[in-house]
Design a protein that fits this description.
46% of the residues lie in helices and 13% in strands. With 391 residues, it is α/β, with parallel strands linked by helices. The chain has a six-stranded parallel sheet with strand order 2-1-3-4-5-6, sandwiched between helices. Strands 8-7-9-10-11 form a five-stranded parallel sheet, with helices on both faces.
């Protein structure tokens, strides 16, 4: 097989300037010469989406969210059919986030195309899904996982939660940073620690960490990311102290992190987030390994990042939610250059091994081929059975 033709039918679409799943899809589909892709765009039918947006704008947040669960805005089949006839894809790819994976599943069945679905987050537990509708959304989520030819799970926790299906494989997100560097030569205090990523759900924890470290002469935590959810006045305060650096585009991140000596990864301690922390995987931890930075994980024992770190003692884990615990752990690390070097070595090994971009990309292409082969074999078997059955 030459280039694999991929049709993307997904609420999450490839976007080089996006975040999370958008970036992952872009790296896999738009930056890979072995793949040719087309995307079904929501811009072709924006009216209902605009109506939902208007409901939220005028204060009917709960109504709009409930409507999306009961009557999800899916791409019209005619638009998808026309694109399939024009593009002739080998496989359909979707992300189990939002509702479009439902239509991707239906279209794949209708046209007897193999389906590959990414499971990067436990979507049914997201705040956008009202509690009353979560069982309904989860049924569709699990149905897509069972009927996919290949279900790509971002973590072992996701694979287990989906029921350890035969069609499931674990594949971490491809890194956005691919230049592995040595640990910064600077061993003088304070130890410079970077956090880059989600400042919405994790914003309060990051604010607590910044306040706990305020006045420390051993550790300096600096934050990169957009729209922090902090208490009133905190953003201006941290900007004035030089510890909040704002949003940095992905293509400038490696340069911005030059000179840092460690990276902080945070996962939520909130009981309501438990399943999401078990099933998701911190993509920024993957990026930090590409830079050879020692990693500090601040999160509950059950979260995927801590579970990954425990296998081989690959990162410093702080599983106490008290901000004083993260200060104590970082100051202890600052006093131990040998431990910093050991953790940096672990990061470089991870970057060269399971988090290697080329390795992840090759496994993704293999997953596409596996789905195509599995579908072709299944169709041939069904044809043979029909012929043998006779009139």
């Amino acid at each position: 097989m030459d280039r694999i033709k991929v049709l993307v039918v997904s609420s999450v679409v490839p976007n080089a300037r996006g975040s999370g799943g958008e970036l992952v899809l872009h790296r896999h589909l738009k930056s890979n010469p072995r793949i040719e892709s087309e995307v079904v765009s929501w811009r072709q039918f924006p009216f209902r989406l605009k109506l939902i947006g208007k409901l939220r704008q005028i204060g009917f947040q709960s109504v709009s969210l409930a409507w999306e669960c009961l009557f999800p805005v899916l791409p019209p089949r005619k638009i998808v059919r026309d694109l399939i006839q024009l593009f002739r894809p080998d496989v359909v790819v979707t992300v189990a986030h939002g509702s479009w994976h439902i239509q991707a599943r239906r279209v794949a069945q209708e046209f007897k195309l193999p389906l590959v679905c990414f499971f990067q987050d436990w979507w049914p537990d997201f705040p956008d899904v009202p509690l009353a509708f979560r069982p309904r959304v989860e049924r569709q989520f699990r149905k897509t996982s069972a009927e996919s030819d290949v279900a790509i799970c971002v973590s072992e926790g996701m694979r287990r939660e989906l029921g350890e299906l035969e069609n499931a494989l674990v594949l971490h997100d491809a890194p956005s940073l691919t230049r592995c560097s040595e640990l910064a030569d600077n061993v003088e205090l304070p130890l410079r620690v970077a956090y880059f990523g989600n400042l919405s759900e994790y914003g309060p924890l990051i604010e607590c960490a910044l306040r706990a470290l305020k006045g420390s002469d051993r550790v300096r935590l600096e934050i990169f990311g957009p729209s922090p959810v902090w208490t009133s006045g905190a953003e201006d305060e941290f900007r004035s102290l030089g510890v909040y650096r704002g949003f940095i585009p992905p293509n400038q991140l490696a340069q911005s992190l030059h000179g840092f000596q460690a990276a902080l990864v945070v996962m939520s301690f909130a009981p309501s987030h438990r399943r999401r922390m078990i099933t998701s995987f911190a993509s920024k931890m993957i990026d930090a390994t590409q830079l050879g930075l020692p990693i500090i994980v601040w999160g509950p024992e059950y979260c995927s990042a801590v579970q990954w770190a425990r296998r081989g003692d690959r990162a410093l884990c702080v599983t106490d939610s008290n901000p004083s615990a993260i200060r104590g752990a970082l100051e202890e690390l600052a006093a131990s250059p040998a431990e910093q070097e050991r953790l940096a070595k672990s990061s470089r090994e991870a970057a060269a091994g399971e988090f290697n971009c080329e390795r992840i990309q090759a496994r993704f292409v293999d997953a596409l081929r596996r789905a195509i082969y599995s579908k072709n074999r299944s169709d041939a078997s069904a044809m043979e059975q029909a012929v043998n059955a006779g009139p």
